Amino acid sequence: MNFRLYRDLLAIVPVRRVLLVGMLARFPHAAAGVLLTLHVVLTLDKGYAAAGAVAAVVTIGIAVGAPWRGRRVDNVGLRKALIPSVISEAVIWSVAPHVSYEWLLVLALIGGLFTLPVFSVVRQSLGVLAAGEKRRTAFTLDSIATEIVFMGGPAVGAVLATSISTVVGLTLVGISTAAAGVFLMWFNPPTRSAADGAVPPHDVEAATAAVVTAAPAHLREPAAELTQAAGAAADAADPANSGGLLRRAAAGFSWMTVSVAVVFVVAAGAGLLLASTDVGIVALVESSGDPGKLGIVFAVWCAASLVGGLLYGAMTRRISPMLLLLAMAVLTLPMSFATDTLSLALLSIPGGLLCAPVLSAASERVADLVTEERRGEAMGWYGSALTTGTAIGAPLAGAAIDTIGPWSGFAFAGAAAAMMALLTLGTRAMVIRRRIRV
């Protein structure tokens, strides 16, 4: 391990600024989840199921909008791409607290679609500003910063909701996020290298050629084969018309290889594991009759992730995100044996140590596999995969808890994530064997 990597990286002023802006921009949304739940339950006098529906709608909006927002950054630049998000964040979350539940669902969906793409922008910029071992450390620092934000954000949201009002809290979320977006536009962190030789986005075929040529050797053939196959199929169907459309569609996803898809599955597995564990912690602590100690378990879990991230970021060798996810899934299973708050907090440490490393390794892999011309869109899809896993994991774990008991949430989380990790390992092994035969 080389902890000097942190010092060297933080000595780069743009890197420090990107990490700081990322923390500031994420903090309002870290508080928004608790505020939305308490607004539906307390202010609108609905149940937790209704609150969960609002959270699900926001999640769907984010999952659908993230790739589109990332592609806008690739095509028109950061400043122009962020304008719709800045406006919508300020308007929607200032109006949402004053409408009925039905309209809140609509606004939540729109708000999710236009959410400020902090995750993809920060990771895309760090991928440009740092390379090699520094890139791993940069992504780890961002994961650690995120852990710190989510240790404090929900607590601030709860204080605002109970001490002042959820209306004021949600309005502050919108204004604060919009302000962070304006600051991000002013700072304008790089999303491409200064000499990347990017091809104008309107020239689709030329852009495709540039992406394939610039890609690493092991990615060129799959990308070229995908484009050629799509073109041939299009010409056979209708050379005069549909061929060009299909070629453009293939060109737009020339960066999507089997290796990239595997990383997205890992991201979905990580999201499922984290969300399911989250629900399991809440259920087990509440069933113990002492919900006031819930914050202790989350603090220990997040602190373990922070420590694991620091250690991983100082490592001088790469570890596969698939192996990290598998290890995290297996280490989450013992949480099923917890009997009280203390034992649950202690059993959360092993799995928690791998939270930040899994996300950092997956982000690093995407940055390595996808060229800068399409990295914003790729990071958007990566965020969507993570969000999709979260949206799937929470309700399924909840169903298992309602049917069997609190302990089953951890069993479901570990087993499902382990299966996804094994699936990706098997897929990668098949691809490697196929390449060797060819």
UniProtKB/TrEMBL annotation:
<feature type="transmembrane region" description="Helical">
    <location>
        <begin position="143"/>
        <end position="161"/>
    </location>
</feature>
<dbReference type="InterPro" id="IPR036259">
    <property type="entry name" value="MFS_trans_sf"/>
</dbReference>
<dbReference type="Pfam" id="PF07690">
    <property type="entry name" value="MFS_1"/>
</dbReference>
<feature type="transmembrane region" description="Helical">
    <location>
        <begin position="344"/>
        <end position="367"/>
    </location>
</feature>
<keyword id="KW-1133">Transmembrane helix</keyword>
<dbReference type="InterPro" id="IPR020846">
    <property type="entry name" value="MFS_dom"/>
</dbReference>
<protein>
    <submittedName>
        <fullName>MFS transporter</fullName>
    </submittedName>
</protein>
<feature type="transmembrane region" description="Helical">
    <location>
        <begin position="167"/>
        <end position="187"/>
    </location>
</feature>
<feature type="domain" description="Major facilitator superfamily (MFS) profile">
    <location>
        <begin position="245"/>
        <end position="438"/>
    </location>
</feature>
<feature type="transmembrane region" description="Helical">
    <location>
        <begin position="319"/>
        <end position="338"/>
    </location>
</feature>
<feature type="transmembrane region" description="Helical">
    <location>
        <begin position="253"/>
        <end position="274"/>
    </location>
</feature>
<keyword id="KW-0472">Membrane</keyword>
<feature type="transmembrane region" description="Helical">
    <location>
        <begin position="103"/>
        <end position="122"/>
    </location>
</feature>
<feature type="transmembrane region" description="Helical">
    <location>
        <begin position="294"/>
        <end position="312"/>
    </location>
</feature>
<keyword id="KW-0812">Transmembrane</keyword>
<feature type="transmembrane region" description="Helical">
    <location>
        <begin position="48"/>
        <end position="68"/>
    </location>
</feature>
<feature type="transmembrane region" description="Helical">
    <location>
        <begin position="80"/>
        <end position="97"/>
    </location>
</feature>
<feature type="transmembrane region" description="Helical">
    <location>
        <begin position="407"/>
        <end position="427"/>
    </location>
</feature>
<feature type="transmembrane region" description="Helical">
    <location>
        <begin position="379"/>
        <end position="401"/>
    </location>
</feature>
<dbReference type="InterPro" id="IPR011701">
    <property type="entry name" value="MFS"/>
</dbReference>
<feature type="transmembrane region" description="Helical">
    <location>
        <begin position="20"/>
        <end position="42"/>
    </location>
</feature>
